[in-house]
Amino acid sequence: MRLFIWISVLMLGINILLYGDMAINNLETAKIKYKRALDSATYAAAKYRAYASEEYMENISDGFSENILVNKEEALEWFYRVFFRNINMEDDQLMMTEMKKYIILKSVIGYDKMYIAGKDDIWVEINYEIEYNGKKYRFTLSDKLYDIEQGTWKHTRDIGLDDETRLELVTKHIKDNINNILNLREYEKNKGYYYVDFGVVDTDVNSEIKGINFVAFVEGMPIPAFSKKGESKFYAVSFAGAEISRN
Amino acid sequence: MKDLVAGTIILIVLFGLLSRIVVERDYKIKEIQVEDIVYTYTQVASKKGMLTTSMYKEMSKKLGVMGAFYINIKAEKFFKDSEIPLEIEGEKTIVGVDLRNEGFDILTITAIAKSNHVLNVFYNTNRVIYKLNGRASAPVF
């Protein structure tokens, strides 16, 4: 009889563990789903087919062929379209509104400035204003920079800055801005700290920001963790980006 | 006699528990595999701008190993002044069609199992129905 009781207790324990395992499994599946949805959505945001409107035709004929025109609103529209289709929510307005609360960052990393939008989709413009050797410059993604004090455009070699350090400085600036916005969430229920890394000092050249990008960060809908109080939640956090280029 | 009864109950419960573990693992593995297959073929088709007949056959064959599935393919074309896209749907309409040149924007492939998974026997709830399915959308531009 004692053996029966012990085995019953053991089986009950295994059952509880299995339920916990289901939650972790759901989290893993959600993570994969969000990551894939983000990959496809950021790709769509970066490569969207611009509507051949009159306004667009005017913009592309302005002569600045090196500069890529990015319509952030349109990019965001494509991002949402593809993202929601991947997670099967495109026909549910309520769910889409709810889900948007968990897409806590969207950013267009442009040539001379970046735009960041939180869950409310309001864009904030941030210049690449970086201090180097005691002087403030406005950097770009190329070797050109703007000397704020003198009000002139220069090349990085003019201020004795090599390419590697320039890339490091700009990437770090972009990364810091993204991380700051990601963690401005003191009123949120989820107090988790997020840290996004592009690998500034990495030897992997692909991890540096060299071109114009669209990046997004998703927390995912909270998944109950089967904890005692039922308050703990899992978040299937994911981050993705794609380089913007127009042919 | 008491020990025999206790032993039998233990064996039955243990068998049930083991069955649940096996069925759960089966569901988890197949769920990921179905997702993987659908995702891979959607991505390849989107990069190519079309879902070729050979790709569709290959995908159906791979899904067929996992069970019987309804496969739905949809392509959408968006317009500037409307959120309602032009949709075309179905194997005959989409497979082999050059979606990119036809101006379509998004390709969606959905695979839904024709029957529920055995896991429903263990989790008899109306809240969640365990059914293998995979869905992926990708831009074709």
Structure characterization notes:
In chain A, a hairpin with a 4-residue loop joins strand 6 (144-147) and strand 7. Chain A is built from five helices and eleven strands. Chain A starts with a helix and ends with a strand. Chain A has helices spanning 2-47, 54-60, 72-86, 93-100, 163-182; strands at residues 105-109, 113-117, 123-127, 129-132, 135-139, 144-147, 152-155, 213-218, 223-224, 233-234, 238-243. In chain A, strands 3-2-1-8-11 form a five-stranded antiparallel sheet, sandwiched between helices. Chain A has 247 residues and is α+β, with helices and mostly antiparallel strands. The longest helix of chain A is centred in the N-terminal third of the chain and has 46 residues, at 2-47. By secondary structure, chain B is of the alpha+beta class. Chain B has one domain (2-139). Chain B has four helices and four strands, in the order H-H-E-E-H-E-H-E. In chain B, 26% of the residues are buried. The mean pLDDT of chain B is 90. The interface between A and B is medium-sized, with 29 and 29 residues.
Task: Sum up the structure in keywords.
A: 247 residues, alpha+beta, 5-stranded antiparallel β-sheet, 4-stranded antiparallel β-sheet, 19% strand, B: 141 residues, 4 helices, 4 strands, elongated
Question: Strands, helices and their partners?
Answer:
The complex is a heterodimer of chains A (247) and B (141).
Chain A: H1 2-47, H2 54-60, H3 72-86, H4 93-100, E1 105-109, E2 113-117, E3 123-127, E4 129-132, E5 135-139, E6 144-147, E7 152-155, H5 163-182, E8 213-218, E9 223-224, E10 233-234, E11 238-243
Antiparallel strand pairs in A: 1-2, 1-8, 2-3, 4-5, 5-6, 6-7, 8-11, 9-10
Helix pairs in contact in A: 1-3
Chain B: H1 2-48, H2 53-66, E1 69-79, E2 82-89, H3 91-94, E3 106-113, H4 119-122, E4 133-139
Antiparallel strand pairs in B: 1-2, 1-3, 3-4
